[in-house]
Amino acid sequence: MMTAKHQNRKKVKDNDSELIQAINSGQSNKFHDLVKRYEQKLYNFSLRMCRDPGDAEDMVQDTFLNVFRYLKDFRYETKFKNWLYKVAASTCIKQRRKSKFAPDRELSLDEFRSQDEAEVPSQVPKWALMPLDKLLNDELSNMIHQAILSLPEKYRVIILLRDIEGFSTDETAQILGLSSSNVKVRLHRARLYLRDKLKGYFKNDE
Amino acid sequence: MTSDEHDHKHCLEMFEKLSEYIDGELDQLTCADIEKHISNCVACFSCVETLKRTVAICKGVKEKPIPEEFAQKLRDIIQGLPNKPSAT
Lengths: 206, 88
Fold this sequence. Notes:
The complex is a heterodimer of chains A (206) and B (88). Chain A is mostly helical and 206 residues long. Chain A has helices at 4-9, 17-24, 31-49, 53-70, 80-96, 109-118, 126-129, 132-135, 138-150, 153-164, 169-176, 180-201.
């Protein structure tokens, strides 16, 4: 039977492993291929983390430079993508300290609970039932983008990693160095916050 | 049963767990408890559906393409990197 220590050392092979080995063995021209794979995803993650597109570009650039710098230290103990987002999240936090962003505040469950108690629905709102493709348009995309940006950072990063980038609770916890239960608590509050924004947005349609 | 008639305390207990419920992260017993509750409570059922829709909207938002100028800048920076990543 494998011990927990052994399991921790287990190497994770994914689609990026070969490329990373090639880069680390001197084929640095292949780093461009790695960047190509992730630049679009990382750019969008950064746009959603930062208010300013210029800051988002800086974040992408710094992340890739940090990835190049520390790629030798990558131990294949996790998927490369998870490690990349760990570097990105850490780069972003450092960068945000230098810039102006939404203030970090706690979201309390009570503020969402009390709103729900005040307006107990007699039926499910239309926006939650109609086909998603009929609902999604540029205006709604822009609205949700702004709503995500207005979330305090510690909640925003969680909703981005979980609901937009598709990481699991445990992966998100690992990327951010948090406990899984902490990720779950923050995710629920972030979703409730966005749900309230959507309720406001669709108020006149009901 | 209407939302006014049933045990409101139960709604509050459910409320904390709804994201875990929609993510399939709860044990069977708790899931069954929630399912039983939302089948009788419009408020909690609505909360589940609006939360699910919130997640679906987040997942459905399209990505923006990376600006070509910025992509070129990245390529230029990468070209200027040394042959091998340095070990720390």
